[in-house]
Inverse folding.
């Protein structure tokens, strides 16, 4: 089974930019329908192919490759109860697709036929691919990572290249069993941009967001000295959940920071690995149905150590009068988060369909962000996308985290870009 092969994200811009954002893929070799993949006991041996460490045509000369590998492993092992051991290997190729691999979990950049095959359909669609082998009980037996040999990587933020450490941190999340996250600002979001999108370096996926940390703790438990952790929230969207509709569910803490996210098709959801504290739970239906369930709060929960808070929400339908899909900065729009610094004001761009400044209001659930009144403007980006800009003020006291952008009309349509603004994490200058 192969999923989440998202097509190249469109980037609308007043400048001519060529494919600056890539999706990436994970290929799963095992029975469909098995979920919550994980390694037994959280012990994982990773073999680093010599092809990654020697000079190669697609990693910039003098890059700190060994450091990027070490830090991308430590990002995960420092927040969860996992033991990632690495060694060097002469192996070059990933295990071919099939019921089982060779048992070696390899990170490779070699241009061998087996590796190149993973990118042959669309050489510029994915920065890297991870192939995960698992058994019927969902226990991962092997996971191989291939860096796309057709694109350029670096470790120093060189514009026009992909950040190697960000890419590896994302792929190691897959290697550990994580799927993609709907949170724009998370490391496990399906899209990430090369250095230069929005006119800035893009190193933010090196740092895990609260959403990534909750997800890995939910699989393996917290690290040994973690006093803030953990509790759970579970619940269901009651009556009226339509067959085959997918909803995104997410939680925000008392400062409006996204704490965890998931998707549900049957209405059931569960968050584990949450820091202790108060949360508000939100949901929105995804897809393009005309009558749909807009973004809304479905309840509040207090998470206590070892406890599970229970909530349920009843959906209310609204007519779809607009779509909110893109966020951006410096005249560009994309499906990835924008990084901001505290104490400043930015012009933020939003893109979608039917974004009418006279009917639309934009808001936040955090005290740290505010829209400067009277600054929402309509912009002409052609017929395919509707674009507005607005001034957003960031409080000096704003704490690091991912914050959701909400847009709504009087008719009750409300859409959220979950974690669309990211504060304090490699802020753009
Ligand atoms: Zn991915």
């Amino acid at each position: 089974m192969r999923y989440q092969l998202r097509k190249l994200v469109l980037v609308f811009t007043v400048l001519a930019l060529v494919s600056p954002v890539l999706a990436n893929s994970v290929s799963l070799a095992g029975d469909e329908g098995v979920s919550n993949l994980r390694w037994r006991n959280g012990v994982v041996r990773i073999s680093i192919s010599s092809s990654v460490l020697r000079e190669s045509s697609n990693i910039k000369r003098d890059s700190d490759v060994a450091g990027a590998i070490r830090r991308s492993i430590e990002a995960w092992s420092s927040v969860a109860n996992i033991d990632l051991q690495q060694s060097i290997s002469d192996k070059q190729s990933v295990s071919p697709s099939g019921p089982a691999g060779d048992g070696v979990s390899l990170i490779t950049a070699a241009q061998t036929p087996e590796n190149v095959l993973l990118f042959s359909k669309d050489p510029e669609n994915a920065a890297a691919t991870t192939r995960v082998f698992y058994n019927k009980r969902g226990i991962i037996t092997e996971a191989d990572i291939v860096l796309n040999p057709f694109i350029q990587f670096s470790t120093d933020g060189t514009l026009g290249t992909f950040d190697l450490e960000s890419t590896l941190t994302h792929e190691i999340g897959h290697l550990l069993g994580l799927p993609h996250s709907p949170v724009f600002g998370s490391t496990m979001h399906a899209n990430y941009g090369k250095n230069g999108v929005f006119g800035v370096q893009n190193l933010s996926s090196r740092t895990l967001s609260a959403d990534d940390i909750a997800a890995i703790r939910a699989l393996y438990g917290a690290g040994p000295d973690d006093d803030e952790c953990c509790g759970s929230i579970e619940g269901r969207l009651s009556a009226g959940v339509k067959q085959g509709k997918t909803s995104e569910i997410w939680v925000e803490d008392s400062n409006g920071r996204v704490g965890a996210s998931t998707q549900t098709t049957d209405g059931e959801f569960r968050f584990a690995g949450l820091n202790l504290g108060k949360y508000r739970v939100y949901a929105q239906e995804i897809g393009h149905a005309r009558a749909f369930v807009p973004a809304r709060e479905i309840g509040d929960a207090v998470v206590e150590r070892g406890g599970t808070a229970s909530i349920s929400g009843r959906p209310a339908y609204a007519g779809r009068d607009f779509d909110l899909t893109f966020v951006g900065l410096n005249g560009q729009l994309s499906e990835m988060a924008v990084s901001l610094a505290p104490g400043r004001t930015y012009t933020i761009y939003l893109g979608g369909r039917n974004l009418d400044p006279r009917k639309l209001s934009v808001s936040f659930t955090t005290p740290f962000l505010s829209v400067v009144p009277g600054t929402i403007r309509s912009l002409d980006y052609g017929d395919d996308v509707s674009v507005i800009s607005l001034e957003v003020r960031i409080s000096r006291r704003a704490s690091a985290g991912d914050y959701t952008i909400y847009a709504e009309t009087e008719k009750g349509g409300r859409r959220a870009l979950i974690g669309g603004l990211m504060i304090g994490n490699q802020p753009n200058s």
